[in-house]
Amino acid sequence: MPRMGGIQATQEIRSLPLPQPMIVALTAHAFDAEKRACFEAGMDDFLTKPIRKADFLSWIAAFQSGEKSRRLVA
Questions:
Q1: Among 7, 51, 53, 70, which is most exposed with the fewest C-beta within 10 angstroms?
Q2: What local confidence, expressed as pLDDT, does residue 71 receive?
Q3: Residue among 69, 54, 74, 58 at smallest CA distance from 22
Q4: pLDDT digits (tens, 9 = 90+) for 37-64
Q5: Dist. CA 42–CA 29, nearest whole Å
Q6: Alpha-carbon distance 10 to 33, whole Å?
Q7: What angle do CA 48, 49, 52 make, to 5 degrees?
Q8: How far apart are CA 24 and CA 3, in angstroms?
Q9: Domains recognised in the chain with CATH numbers
Q10: Is 9 or 55 the better-scoring residue by pLDDT?
């Protein structure tokens, strides 16, 4: 993003006293440190590229049913 990265944008959105949107990282950087930073910033999930359409639609269906995955392995 031209003015700020996704982590900073997430932190700023999470600090607003408004109804909160779902925020999901979609990145090619699949390292554990990057995942951890995204979750610590307040993101709801973390997906890595490349992503297949069927996998993405399955992920959306899971979120709509209330299943939150938090893909970070501790």
A1: 53
A2: 53
A3: 69
A4: 999 999 988 888 898 898 888 888 888 8
A5: 17
A6: 17
A7: 105
A8: 19
A9: 6-64 (3.40.50.2300)
A10: 9
Q: How far apart are alpha carbons 9 and 15 in whole angstroms?
A: 10
- Between the alpha carbon of residue 45 and those of residues 1, 3, 48, 70, the distances in Å are 19, 22, 10, 5
Residues 6+ apart with CB under 8 A from 70: 39, 44, 45
Structure tokens at 50: 């490349």
Q: Tell me which residue has tokens 């992503």.
A: 51
pLDDT band at 73 (very low <50, low <70, confident <90, very high): very low
Judge whether 46 and 24 are in contact, CB under 8 Å.
yes
- Given a contact cutoff of 8 angstroms between Cβ atoms, the answer to whether 14 and 20 are in contact is yes
| Spatial distance between the Cα atoms of 50 and 47, rounded to a whole number of angstroms | 9
